[in-house]
């Protein structure tokens, strides 16, 4: 599906989008299962979508093509730990584009809009999490200016 960015509608998500958002959430989880064998096999949930929709501290975006939601992402303002010079930061999550629409700059445009919103909230620092083996996602985030800053390590006992 080679749609031009001008054909896409970028908008704030609403409660009416909840069923589509739940489906996209499962897409995120399915995409991340190869990177983390501890993710449950049955449907599970990452996000409190209702809270993201109702919170003034969050901005949840969707992207539509012909009335169908094909991508999503959010920025959430969070308190920073006291050791940092910034008191608050933006955290990006729920970054997902349906496979047929990848490679067309949709994710970059979502991030651009989320960063603009974050700046309007007087935020100067932005974070996100990505699995270290997810090289395509890492490249996409680096393309818009993110750099690696911390690697979380785990050990299954």
TrEMBL record:
<dbReference type="InterPro" id="IPR016181">
    <property type="entry name" value="Acyl_CoA_acyltransferase"/>
</dbReference>
<dbReference type="InterPro" id="IPR000182">
    <property type="entry name" value="GNAT_dom"/>
</dbReference>
<dbReference type="GO" id="GO:0016747">
    <property type="term" value="F:acyltransferase activity, transferring groups other than amino-acyl groups"/>
</dbReference>
<protein>
    <recommendedName>
        <fullName>N-acetyltransferase domain-containing protein</fullName>
    </recommendedName>
</protein>
<dbReference type="Pfam" id="PF00583">
    <property type="entry name" value="Acetyltransf_1"/>
</dbReference>
<feature type="domain" description="N-acetyltransferase">
    <location>
        <begin position="8"/>
        <end position="157"/>
    </location>
</feature>
């Amino acid at each position: 599906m080679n749609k031009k960015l001008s054909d896409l509608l970028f908008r704030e998500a609403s409660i009416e989008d909840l069923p589509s958002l739940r489906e996209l959430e499962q897409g995120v989880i399915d995409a991340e299962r190869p990177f983390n064998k501890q993710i449950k096999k049955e449907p599970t949930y990452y996000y409190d979508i209702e809270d993201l929709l109702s919170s003034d501290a969050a901005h949840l975006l969707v992207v539509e093509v012909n009335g169908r939601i094909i991508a999503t992402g959010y920025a959430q303002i969070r308190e920073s730990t006291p050791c940092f010079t910034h008191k608050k930061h933006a955290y990006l999550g729920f970054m997902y584009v349906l496979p047929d629409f990848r490679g067309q700059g949709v994710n970059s445009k979502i991030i651009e809009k989320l960063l603009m919103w974050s700046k309007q909230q007087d935020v100067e620092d932005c974070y996100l999490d990505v699995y270290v083996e997810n090289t395509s996602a890492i490249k996409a985030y680096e393309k818009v200016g993110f750099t690696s800053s911390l690697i979380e390590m785990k050990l299954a006992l």
